[in-house]
Specification:
The protein has 61 residues and is mainly α. 56% of the residues lie in helices and 0% in strands. The longest helix is centred in the first third of the chain and has 24 residues. The termini are far apart. 5% of the residues are buried.
Length: 61
């Protein structure tokens, strides 16, 4: 696998991880065992723990 292909796959996996994190953060009652997070983990071989606390919004200074 070429470096550019690896970088593309890494970018896709990172994006899907962000989608999963956003889903878990924004959907009330969302669980890591819901369909979307499970499907992302299965397809892109990524894993992350459910955050204990939602991040606080930061407004630009």
């Amino acid at each position: 696998m070429e470096q550019s292909e690896f970088n593309l796959l890494e970018a896709i996996a990172s994006f899907m991880l962000a989608v999963k994190d956003s889903y878990l953060d924004k959907i009330p009652g969302a669980r890591d065992s819901d369909f979307l997070p499970k499907e992302i983990v299965a397809r892109y071989n990524v894993s992350i723990a459910v955050p204990l606390q939602s991040p606080q919004a930061v407004s630009p200074g």
